[in-house]
């Protein structure tokens, strides 16, 4: 019976050796929890198009593209040229620059909710500032968020992203649970947790807590938490109730911005008050943004008193701005259509593969993203996601590495524009081969049901 970890160790000796060095200088030998996996992470040396090569020289198809950021694949010639040209002119000045105006204009033109935008360097900063803006605008202290959503790693964000279901209270009235040691007690008091895709329960909680709520923040399509799309009805109810109660609605589109030129808000036809962006808007460099209604964004205007200061040595840095402009210009409506068509097709193919092996799985797809959940029940929220078999997910992830495909360790995937039909077929074939190989191992174990992460 195959043990994917044994094969992984045998075929990635240089990654293993690098990790042995890394553990002496970084905790666990890693600087990014989301790319760590046991027995040790894969060390990638280079990428081109939809392929990556590890330090042992093994080529793999990249089915996650730096957690969805690399929508154009690696080293896209236009993006590389933009970076090269800007690097030669300088990478940062204590001044405004023309490229930031270009990217800001482009985003405001595309995204329905953006009257104005500000740049920062990570999705974490973007959601932190959007929440601060909401508190400043409304004069209220608290933020409501979805159980199982992900908004980065600041204190207000590190609540109920992946709670143990047994400790998270009733599904229709979840309790705020810390995601991390060190999450402050005040964060648990000021964060209200809502059940995703349960409109009556979410509305009831919002009405109950409304007088203290500055904002409701959510991913219209949950990304890292399992590619779970909100129902249109859920978003509509949130829009209506927040509008009625004077609460700002924030769409965190750090990931879902890849589903359409104007993001998920364009697809659903629902305009939030504020939006956060990241990942694809920097063409692979660390760029993020938050923006929205003019009367809210105005609080950041340094010409008025008081105002919210938003310093940041690298905010709007010309290198990231240039890469972002180049990437955005490549992303025409036709490109999105093509990617989304391929996304739908790969989900169909994967569903057929698992059915042919009689392995129960939910293939959650949205646009060019997908996630595999080993469970019988449709995955529509955190609790149904957390019921999936985590050990099978880990086995599949490792075995796919052994078969030449890189997903996220949670079996999340994202397509990129350089992927042709043959690349996609190669990925589907790798899944087919892995499932065939792993089935005896899975059948020899009792089914387990565990929480995620
Ligand atoms: C929806 C969402 N918001 C925020 C973040 C945080 O972004 P970053 O990792 O750039 O801080 C992420 C990261 O994956 C995300 O998926």
- Find the CATH topology of the largest domain: Aspartate Aminotransferase, domain 2
User: What is the beta-strand fraction?
Assistant: 5-15%
From the N-terminal CA to the C-terminal CA, the straight-line distance is 26 Å
Assign the structural class, choosing from mainly alpha, mainly beta, alpha/beta, alpha+beta, or little secondary structure.
alpha/beta
- Morphology call: globular
Give me the CATH architecture of the largest domain, please.
3-Layer(aba) Sandwich
Provide a count of the helices.
Answer: 16
Q: Tell me the radius of gyration.
A: 22 Å
Number of domains: 2
What ligands can be seen in this structure?
A: pyridoxal-5'-phosphate
For the biggest β-sheet, the strand order reads: 4-12-11-10-7-5-6
Question: What share of residues is helical?
Answer: 40-55%
CATH class of the largest domain: Alpha Beta
What characterizes the major β-sheet? 7 strands, mixed
Total strand count, please?
16
- Fourth-level CATH superfamily of the largest domain: Type I PLP-dependent aspartate aminotransferase-like (Major domain)
* Overall pLDDT level: 97
Low-confidence stretches are 449-453
What does this structure look like?
There is one protein chain. With 453 residues, the chain is an alpha/beta fold. The chain folds into two domains: 170 residues, Alpha-Beta Complex (Aspartate Aminotransferase, domain 1), CATH 3.90.1150.10; 254 residues, Aspartate Aminotransferase, domain 2. Helix content is 40%, strand content 15%. The strands form four sheets. The protein has a seven-stranded mixed beta sheet with strand order 4-12-11-10-7-5-6, sandwiched between helices. The chain has a four-stranded mixed beta sheet with strand order 1-2-3-15. It has a three-stranded antiparallel beta sheet with strand order 13-14-16. Strand 8 and strand 9 form a beta hairpin. Helix 4 runs antiparallel to helix 12, helix 5 runs parallel beside helix 12 and helix 13 runs parallel beside helix 16. The chain starts with a helix and ends in a 10-residue tail after the last helix. 51% of the residues are buried. It binds pyridoxal-5'-phosphate.
